[in-house]
Amino acid sequence: MTAGRRPRVVAISQARMTSTRLPGKVLLEAAGKPLLVHHLERLARSPGLDAVVLATTLNAADDPVAAVAAAMGIPVFRGDELDVLSRFAGAAAMAEADVVVRVTSDCPLIDPELVGALIAAFLADQQPPLDYLSIDSARYPRGLDAEIFPRTLLDEAAATAREPWEREHVTPFIHQHPERFRLGAPLGPDGPAIEQRWCVDEAADFELVRRLLETLLPATPLFGWRDCCRVLDDHPDWVDINRSIRQKTLH
Fold this sequence. Notes:
Layout: E1 9-14, E2 29-30, E3 33-34, H1 35-44, E4 51-57, H2 63-71, E5 76-79, H3 84-94, E6 99-104, H4 112-124, E7 133-134, E8 147-150, H5 151-160, H6 164-169, H7 172-175, H8 203-216, H9 225-234
Parallel strand pairs: 1-4, 1-6, 4-5
Antiparallel strand pairs: 2-3, 6-8, 7-8
Helix pairs in contact: 3-5
Organism: Azospirillum cavernae
GO cellular component, one term: cytosol
Keywords: Capsid protein, Virion
């Protein structure tokens, strides 16, 4: 980052059609739009963002994903399917990012204000500069996840990480070297942890997210994560729809 000017902050979201548990999930429709459109529209409203980029693969199966983003005016970078780390590095270079916000497109309920708070906290804590900050996915519902770090650190990880799982999941190289990087404490909600799943990995996840979108959007198009909580307070049985789904482990 260049001293004396505000860094260029770019959100990069990864997406592909070949998800192992729910293929094509990002283009499933809810409330009249593909989940990917909901995700990108909400992400683009995040305060402090200068640009949003979609990072997808070179596979022909992902042509529809690229087409959806392009139709929205979202720049698209296409790279290796399994080496997601190099895909992110390429997308960040294309966008001339100074700071990268990493998100995944299976989070159609991502909260713009929460992403904005993450950006503000990262940029404010610069004495000495932070290398990494994240939303606390152990305390917020899964599906609000976001990470932020300088592009220089992303480039270093892309040049150094060797293990396949480091390259597939983008940021493990950073997490595993606290002696090398300044890692900020994850941002968590006030109060107790909220152990719910709002990301989409399986059909049950999609059913819950579909209900939330179709309930909230007509009256509250700019809804946030607390609005989702209120709907689930009104429909406590909905939480059971995907309660049995477990997050995949890193490896």
